[in-house]
Amino acid sequence: PTITHTLNVLEASYRFTTVGPKSFQDDFENLVQTDSSLQYINFAPEVTFGPNYAVVLDNRFRIGLHRQTYFRYSAEVKGAYFLPSGLTPENLHTRNNLLGFIETDTRQYFNLNKKQVLAGKLLFNAAVPLTQNSANAFSLNDLYVVGGANSVRAFAPRQIGPGSVAPNVETNILAITNHVGNFLLESAVEFRYRWAPRWEWAGFVDAGNVWTVQPIEGAPGADFQLNRFYKELAVGTGLGIRYVFSYLVIRLDTAMPIRKPWFPEGNRWVFDEIRLGSKSWRKENLIVSFSVGYPF
Length: 296
Description:
single chain
């Protein structure tokens, strides 16, 4: 296999937001300055800096292997400083933050024969505060979401999580962050069958969710807890069809949920609710995804 190491001793970035016209800018800045929930933190100008490291092991392109592997591990420590401005809440002006990130991506491919492949993946990502006052200092770009064509395909992006929070919860924080979390756990198993020279069909099962570091007021079950996180995984299953070019795959996947983590514990598996013949059920539950490339 090829093993690639990447070390950036220092990586720095500067993020800022422009707001206009002037009349709206004044009103918006007044709103930001009087807000204490930090729900507008993503608009504050921020300087980040720190080292990061990644290692990738990959033997997917070796021909003739029964089992192929892709593994990626990355770690980053990032200092973050919010600059004073009209878009920076007062409680952020003197705050220095230290954030840590760990991400793992493991994929296995079993070539059963020339036409059949069994593929699986497991992701675990964590974005954690390294100092006490850094817990609410993450921008939206630093946090994780599940759902969509390359994730848990039975759910739309930002439809599920964090934890057992229902999709229709409308606290101020969740309304802004759209169901993001500090921790992500995601897995999938997919069977692929090449039934014609350029055509494949696939059957798959996906699972995953996100969780926050700290509890969220008004949204119980959002934070990560070892004694219940495994009970809060969303699960979906479905079928897909793919057209395979030499270096490009076009796919169409249709998926449905079979486990909804926001339902009461003990009632989260929803096999008994499946009504494929019901138009209203299909509209509410079937997710059709059109994408380019394999999901993993």
